[in-house]
């Protein structure tokens, strides 16, 4: 088997409208398709970034909580590459999103930081 690329990341959110606004208005994702599935009482929102389909955002009634900090068991975080970490942090500040202290990758010497989405899921920005 040969995997060609990452197809998408699926995220279940606790507040659909708040998460939809965060991923579109703050992070700049584009809505490809939005459907409401009555039988599941669930929205499914397909989101793209720079023309590439990346995230499925779901809502379900009363989803269980899950530990989500980068060191918790399971999926650690999602990471986005940015050209200028300082510029990214300044943009996030304008949107009232707090970034953690900038760190340096000990192997690449590249800068990175983390933010949290509306459900406290960790999102990394890595200077490429």
Automatic annotation (TrEMBL):
UniProt entry keywords in alphabetical sequence: Dioxygenase, Metal-binding, Oxidoreductase
Q: Determine if Transport is one of this entry's keywords.
A: no
What SUPFAM superfamilies does the record point to? Glyoxalase/Bleomycin resistance protein/Dihydroxybiphenyl dioxygenase
Q: Where is the VOC domain?
A: 5-128
Q: Which InterPro entries does this UniProt record tie to the protein?
A: Fosfomycin_Res_Enzymes (IPR051332), Glyas_Bleomycin-R_OHBP_Dase (IPR029068), Glyas_Fos-R_dOase_dom (IPR004360), VOC_core (IPR037523), YwkD-like_dom (IPR037478)
**Molecular function terms in GO for this entry?**
dioxygenase activity; metal ion binding
Q: What is this protein called?
A: Glyoxalase/bleomycin resistance protein/dioxygenase
